[in-house]
From TrEMBL:
It comes from Christiangramia forsetii (strain DSM 17595 / CGMCC 1.15422 / KT0803) (Gramella forsetii). It holds the Pfam family Zn_protease. This is Protein containg DUF785. InterPro entries: Asp_endopeptidase, Peptidase_aspartic_dom_sf. Residues 24-149 form the Retropepsin-like aspartic endopeptidase domain. Gene3D superfamilies: Acid Proteases. It comes from the Bacteria.
Amino acid sequence: MLYFGRALGLAPFLVYCNMEKIVIGRVDKADFPALRLNDIAIKIDTGAYTSSIHCENIVEKEDALHCTFLDDEHPLYNKKEFVFENYDIVFVRSSNGIIQKRYMVQSNIKLFNKIFKISLSLSDRQEMRYPVLIGRKFLTKKFIVDTELLEVSFNHKLDEDKNTIQKP
C-alpha cells in the first residue's frame, strides 16, 4: 500500500507500508498446542518485553527442566508434567523493579487460526488475573494492539467454528 507524506518539512514523498499486521485487543484467549492448553486467557502487555506463562513445580533434574502449567485452582489444569531438554535461564525485571531468575522455553501459540513460535518465561502468576502475559518481543512485526478491543482472536475462532458446521 502506498502512502503520501512529507519528510521533515521537505517535498512530498511516497512511502510503501506493509500493512499485514493483525489487530489484537488488550485481552484474548489462545491455544498452546505443544502444551495441550486451549482457550487460555491471555493479557497483551506492550509494557512487558518478554511473554510469560503461569507454571508451578519447576525443577531441574537429569539435564532437563520439569514443570506443570497452570495450577489446581485453574479450570483447565491437567496435572500433566512437561519436560524440556532445551531451555534457557534468563534474568527478568518484573513490574515492581525486582530482577528475577526465570526459565525460558520455546513453544507455539495459536491466534487467529495461525500458529506462531513464542518464547515463554516460566513464572508464578497465581495471583494474577491472566495466566499468560504476551509481551513486545512476540508482538513486534506481527500485531497492532487496540486497547478498546477484547478477545478478537477468540471471537474469530468462534466465527470460523460456526461457519464450518454443516447444516443437514
